[in-house]
Structures are given as C-alpha cells and as structure tokens.
Amino acid sequence: MPFGTDHLEPFKAMLTDPAVLRYTRVPEPVPDRFAESWAARYEAGRKDGTRRGFAILGEDERFCGIAVAPSIDREEQTAELGYVVAPEARGRGVAAEALRQLSDWAFGEGLVRLYLLISEQNPASKKVAARAGYRFEGVMRSVYVKPGVREDTEVWARLSSDRLSR
Predict the structure, then answer these.
(1) Based on the structure, what is the number of domains in the chain?
(2) Distance CA 114, CA 77 (A)
(3) Measured distance CA(149)–CA(93) in Å, rounded
(4) Which residues of the chain carry a pLDDT beneath 70?
(5) pLDDT tens digit string along 84-94?
(6) Is 102 part of a structural domain of the chain?
(7) 164 in any annotated domain
C-alpha cells in the first residue's frame, strides 16, 4: 500500500529501533520532523517518478515497516530498492515477501535491473535478499552511508529476466 500520513506514527516508532538506525541511512540522532520530511520527499518522488515508498501491512492491517525505491532511473530502467521491518514483525518472512512484491511492482513499471545496498555486517538482510531472488554481485568498500558512517556495502541485484522460484 502506498505510504501515507496514517503511517507516520508507527514509522516514527520504528525510527527508535537500534537496528533501524544501524542499518539504514536514517541520520543519528533522528532530526525533528524527520518522518514528515521523509514522507514529503517520497510523495514528491512519486509525482515525478524518481522514488516510491510503500507501507508494509500485516494480515491484520497493522504497520510492519516500509518497502522503498529510493532511486528510480527510468532512462536506465534501474532502481535501488530497500526495506525496513519493525522489530515486532521480524522473523516471519515479512521482509522477503515485501521485497518480492516491491520487485514485482518495479518490474511492472518497466524496470529491468533492481539492486539492493546491504551492509556487509547485516546477515539478516542478506538472507532476505537471497530469499527474494536477488544475487550477490560484490562489495563496494568504504561507502559513505551517513555522516560519520562509512562501511563496506554489498550489492545484490535481480534482473527482470531472472527466474524466481517461490
């Protein structure tokens, strides 16, 4: 479901989780009104086609996290994708299913190559990528993640021509 203002409060709560802060580009400390400015950037990106944000909802319609395309290049037919799952929703396959659905959406938009940037220190996210049909491509060394954080980052990718067995 598209990320909307009704998702802001649970999104803000998710931003207090140490793992979210560790493995995402969310600045630390989280600036005031970060969630609102993040939502506004994704809404502007939806309008101009350069990014997209979705809320991950459980079967009970509760907020479980976000699935995003922070960078879409229509000319190159590529997009970076990402996902963040709230602590209470982890370990149930939510992230892999969200990534599968996000990938299906992106391929449906005519994109050909999708990629993920994953901290080399994040084994859970690498498992999600593999479960969703992404392949490890290599390591980019000392990537700037956010102020004060540089780390080795793995690139995982999936092509529209890749076969996915579920």
Answers:
(1) 1
(2) 9
(3) 29
(4) 164-166
(5) 999 999 999 99
(6) yes
(7) no
